[in-house]
UniProtKB/TrEMBL annotation:
UniProt GO molecular function: glyoxylate reductase (NADPH) activity; hydroxypyruvate reductase [NAD(P)H] activity; NAD binding
Alphabetized InterPro entries for the sequence: D-isomer_2-hydroxyacid_DH, D-isomer_DH_CS, D-isomer_DH_NAD-bd, NAD(P)-bd_dom_sf
Domain of life: Bacteria
Species in which this protein is naturally found: Deinococcus xianganensis
PANTHER family on file: 2-HYDROXYACID DEHYDROGENASE YGL185C-RELATED (PTHR10996:SF178), 2-HYDROXYACID DEHYDROGENASE-RELATED (PTHR10996)
Ranges for domain D-isomer specific 2-hydroxyacid dehydrogenase NAD-binding: 102-270
Gene Ontology cellular-component annotations: cytosol
Descriptive protein name: Hydroxyacid dehydrogenase
Alphabetical UniProt keywords: NAD, Oxidoreductase
Pfam family, any one: 2-Hacid_dh_C
Length: 307
């Protein structure tokens, strides 16, 4: 089996003849501007640019593609016919859940306001229009829109905070979904970006929320219609938003989201941890060993992906 891997020391270690290696697999490594020639059985995609990714997906002979991301929309359009696609939600689920919870706790305690006041050397920070007073998550209704790996982790993390957690899945009837959204103090977007989910949070969705609810987006920027989000933030319909992803992304200079006092922005780093690359290599090793032993590895993406 010949496999193409990112050119990083953690992935080079997979060729070693020790406990890090995977015997019986030939590896070649790619980086931006350098693609190994010839056929390969599989490619592990990660941390590369769109042009390199597209070229890798055109490698002759590919039987499978493993993307070490949770999202797959960047791969699907160029997937060779007949190649199986696998993703790696489990690599990211804990950190993304921790990130969402951290944002919710920070916002509940007004840390964004106090940090802004600190920059101005002001001791106190008045509540923002539409912002609630300092709270905890005790008794809060949290609706997780998308209830896969990350949702289950977040639900577990929220339990000791006394929040009431409800999950929306793609099978949840629309009426039931809207009822849940109307009761939410927090709506957390954990959806993949698909033709069905793009723009799913729009003016009508935001109007249907409880006034002052907060939105957390750790899914994809294009789930939300940004102009509608800005209107809801400015009118006080939304108490605030925690955004790890935006549309456009990255935000260009002068974009109105930069200056929203009730928005906490992070640059698409919800799943980042210092050991992420090592964990990605480890997951790749387990994946290859499963394949070699004739087991179905975790993470196969099937047609009509849901949440
Ligand atoms: C990150 O956004 C991912 O899809 O892994």
């Amino acid at each position: 089996m010949r496999v193409l891997l990112p050119d990083l020391p953690e992935f080079r270690a997979l060729s070693q003849h020790d406990e890090h290696g995977v015997p019986g697999v030939t590896f070649d490594h790619y980086r931006r501007g350098h693609l190994p020639d010839g056929e390969a059985d599989g490619v592990v995609l990660w941390l590369t640019d769109a042009a390199t990714r597209t070229a890798l997906l055109a490698t002759p002979g590919l039987k499978w593609v493993l993307t070490l991301t949770a999202g797959i929309e960047h791969v699907q359009a160029h997937l060779p016919p007949g190649a199986a696609l696998f993703n790696a939600s489990r690599l990211h689920d804990r950190a993304v859940a921790v990130h969402a919870l951290s944002g919710m706790l920070a916002a509940s305690r007004g840390l964004h306001r106090f940090r802004d006041a600190q920059r101005r050397h002001h001791w106190d920070a008045p509540a923002l229009p539409g912002d609630s007073a300092l709270t905890t998550l005790d008794g809060a209704t949290v609706v997780l829109w998308g209830h896969g790996h990350i949702g289950r982790n977040l639900e577990e993390l929220l339990a000791p905070h006394g929040a009431h957690v409800r999950g929306i899945r793609s099978t949840t009837p629309e009426g039931e979904r809207d009822e849940m959204l109307a009761q939410a103090d927090w709506v957390v977007l954990l959806l993949p970006s698909t033709p069905d989910t793009r723009g799913i949070v729009n003016a009508a969705t935001l109007r249907g929320l409880k006034r002052g609810a907060w939105l957390v987006n750790v899914g994809r920027g294009n789930l939300v219609v940004t102009d509608d989000l800005l209107n809801a933030l400015n009118s006080g319909q939304l108490g605030g938003a925690i955004l790890d992803v935006t549309d456009p992304e990255p935000l260009p200079d002068g974009h109105p989201l930069w200056d929203q006092p009730n928005v906490i922005l992070t640059p698409h780093i919800a799943s980042t941890t210092t050991d992420l690359v090592a964990r990605g290599a480890h997951l790749t090793r387990d994946f290859l060993i499963d394949l070699q032993q004739g087991h179905e590895p975790d993470g196969r993406v099937t047609a009509g992906r849901t949440y």
